[in-house]
Specification:
5-stranded mixed β-sheet; Pectate Lyase C-like; Transcription Regulator spoIIAA; alpha/beta; 214 residues; 15 strands; single chain; 5 helices
Length: 214
């Protein structure tokens, strides 16, 4: 069993080695048992996770994530692949998320927000999914979207002009921080010139959109 699944910890979360030579059903059972045995160490943890040693389909990846979550009550904030840039983005988001949990007891939401759905938070909110067109997110603190932001978002809704908005893909219909709303032309222009994950911050009476990592 030890040779089928190995768990290594790091600063941001865990790295899970998956044996490439056994059937997926055998591997899935081994993953479930491994994390069940280690559940007392991980229960309630929120972390970045990476799978190494074996190439997985998206469906297999989902099954392994579900097995880990059910066995050890782990919240997988971001799944890191072999793309170094994606890894850096995930780690940066994780640092922001952990900082919010420490400072403001930020909330986590798992899933995609669809059309006509509204999510409100009295603190900061980390969304593990997409915010689709027609969906709205309103938070008194920061908003972190580990996915695509295409709907409307309002951070710092209670008057916090230091609030920020982060998304892996930022194409919002409306974006507002404190009482300042970004102009649609600004969002379009700065999105076109900045690839990858972005962060929106308020400086005076103007919202700026910058790359999340340099």
């Amino acid at each position: 069993m030890e040779q089928l699944v190995t768990i290594k910890s790091n600063k941001y979360g865990i790295e899970v080695f998956l044996n490439p030579d056994v059937s997926f059903d055998v591997l899935l059972h081994a993953v479930r048992q491994k994390f069940l045995d280690a559940s007392k160490f991980f229960r309630g943890a929120k972390m970045v996770t990476s799978f190494v040693g074996r190439t997985l389909t998206r469906g297999e990846e989902s099954q392994i994530i579900k097995a880990i979550t059910q066995a050890a009550s782990i919240e997988i904030i971001c799944l890191v692949d072999k793309d170094e840039k994606n890894e850096l983005v995930c780690k940066t988001i994780m640092e922001n998320a952990l900082e919010e949990k420490d400072k403001q007891d930020g909330q986590f939401y798992k899933g995609t927000l669809g059309k006509r759905q509204t999510l409100e938070s009295d603190t900061s909110i980390i969304i593990m999914g997409d915010v689709e067109p027609g969906a709205k997110v309103i938070a008194k603190g920061n908003i972190v979207v580990i996915g695509s932001l295409m709907g409307s978002v309002h951070a710092g809704a209670a008057g916090d002009d230091n609030a920020f908005i982060v998304a892996l893909s930022m194409h919002p219909k409306k974006l507002k921080i404190h009482d300042v709303e970004a102009k649609t032309s600004l969002i379009y222009q700065e999105n076109a010139s900045i690839p990858g994950a972005k962060i929106a911050v308020l400086d005076g009476h103007r919202i700026y959109i910058d790359p999340l990592t340099e």
